[in-house]
Amino acid sequence: MNRIIFSISLILLFIIGSGCSKEEAKPVSVEPEEEETVETDIKDEIEEAVPDYVYPLTGIGTDNLVDQRTVAVMINNDPKARPQSGLHKADIVYEVLAEGSITRLLAIFQSELPEKVGPVRSARDYYIELSKGYDTFYVAHGFSPDAKEMLQAGEIDNINGMEYDGILFKRASFRKAPHNSYITFENIMKGAVENNYATTHDQKPLPFLKADQLESIVGEAAVKAKIAYSKAESTIVDYQYDNELQKYYRYAGNESTTDLDSEEPVLLDNVFILETSHKVLDNAGRRDIDLVSGGNAYLLQKGKKQEVQWKNVDGRILPYVNDQPVGLVPGKTWINIVPSLEAVTFTETAN
């Protein structure tokens, strides 16, 4: 009897011991496999998040090859020409006075190509000089005497509506000349090919801040900026910072700057306002504008205003502090050139 009880006890101990050993062994073989899988997945996600290329004029990454040649288009900014087409897709826009108190816009495209651009307006020598800094294919409709001489001398690859009116450039029926000349991007490229101009090139990148540097942007709070090119309401430009989007809206004559067709607003990451000498040259009001000497400027980024200097570096107007370049926020940039910074006022809050 004792032998039977002893044998049964041994069997029970063996069964219990086997069960425990299996339960204890179970997590040991699983946990390393789970950790290895998680680490591999995170690594794969990080690698997938890094873009292969970066647009040189916006600093924004892309998986597509960036070799599109930059295109600069002269865009009409007369009140009768608003709202315009294509401005919301421009990487950089220069806003500079032409004759009188009306500005004209030089829109430079590369990262986004609008279907249609316009109304297209005539060239001036200083717009051509600004375009040369980016080796652009230059598009205009008309020209001043100085600009005509530069274009005919081949200083920049270009097409002009004076030659291609009704061919590459089309007149819109809902506006009157000279506020109704438009061109599609397809026709811009067609004009480049027909004239044996390059349609691809390598573009030197602008200096951009990295993601971990954006929090270190310095300056006084300035969520609103007003630029009075004259006392006329239609010539006054306003910028307003949207804290949620972390971008600036642009207004002209108290109207939001939006695309004519899509109604998409112009949204900006950098607003660069600089002063330089303006001289009226003739009875028509044509100007000579100093784009070389450098001087005082404001740079608006992330709702802050920084006092900087501007310099012309290889044809590009860039912000500097203590002779060091100031990095731009990745995204789109609008550059206002004014005769005096006294025309510019700021508001610290939205209200």
Distance between the first and last residues' Cα? 98 Å
The CATH homologous superfamily of the largest domain: YerB-like
- What is the level 1 CATH name of the largest domain? Alpha Beta
Query: What does the overall shape look like?
Result: globular
Q: Give me the Rg, rounded.
A: 30 Å
Can you give the mean pLDDT? 89
Strand content: 25-35%
Q: Which residue ranges are poorly predicted, with pLDDT under 50 across at least 5 consecutive positions?
A: 1-33
- What is CATH's topology name of the largest domain? YerB-like fold
Count every beta strand, where a strand is a DSSP E run of 2 or more residues.
25
Task: Count up the helices.
Answer: 5
Structural class: alpha+beta
Percent of residues in helical segments? 10-25%
- Give the total of domains: 2
Assigned CATH architecture of the largest domain: 3-Layer(bba) Sandwich
Order of helices and strands: HEEEEEEHEHEHEEHEEEEEEEEEEEEEEE
Domain DUF3048: 57-197, 226-335
Pfam family, one: DUF3048_C
InterPro entries: DUF3048_C, DUF3048_N, YerB-like_sf
Protein name: DUF3048 domain-containing protein
